[in-house]
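Listing S7. Sequence submitted for prediction.
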Amino acid sequence: MAASIAIVAQTGLFSARVPASPARDLNVSAVRVLKLQDGSVAHLRAGADIVYDMSAKVRKIRLISGQAVFEVAKDATRPFVVQSGDVYAQATGTVYSVNRIGATGGAIHVTEGSVLVWARDGRDQAVLLHQGGKLSLDPGPRAAVSRAPARPVAPEPVIAQISLDNTPIAAAAERFNRVNQTKIIITDPAIGEIKIVGLFRASEPDRFARAAAAVAGAELVYDKSSNVIKLK
């Protein structure tokens, strides 16, 4: 025992596998009693296996298998947390037992004080057990997470519109030219000064050009080789 405690003081991490032999009873038939460096005591039943780590901020115990009773030394600044699979039981000074259930579960029985119990990431939904309280949780295996790369989602098409309210044709043409590969060229400055009213899709410069030509009485020339619409 003295050798085991010395190892804990040096490393802060200890693994204890309990041999099968009779011992005194403390809610469970403990076969080994371990005094932890914080003053807490772990009573381990036959086949119990724990790993613990005492840091400056938290006291962590992981119950690998079996059942154990913990007499927790009071320390309000360092929570004492026992993990059984994916179930957690936290106290700051009390007596409670934890029994491993399968791969992910745990059963908690509070003998003294109170213990906060939750599963996995659900600490905000924790249950507070008081003296005599019992709770068994087995969240089961975690859902498999697909590692396949997510398919990119195409954005919804946006139908932008250009609203013209007594806007000079030359100024309106500039607005279309900024958002389209097809360019509108006004060869006669007089045409550019004529004002136009309308609502057009930004992606349809040809429709605007036809409307502008109709308003101005201009000739419309398409030059598909250079992607140009001329108003003259």
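Caption to Listing S7: primary sequence and predicted structure tokens for the chain studied. Residues 2-137 form a domain with the Jelly Rolls fold (CATH 2.60.120.1440). Helices lie at 2-11, 169-179, 189-193, 205-216.
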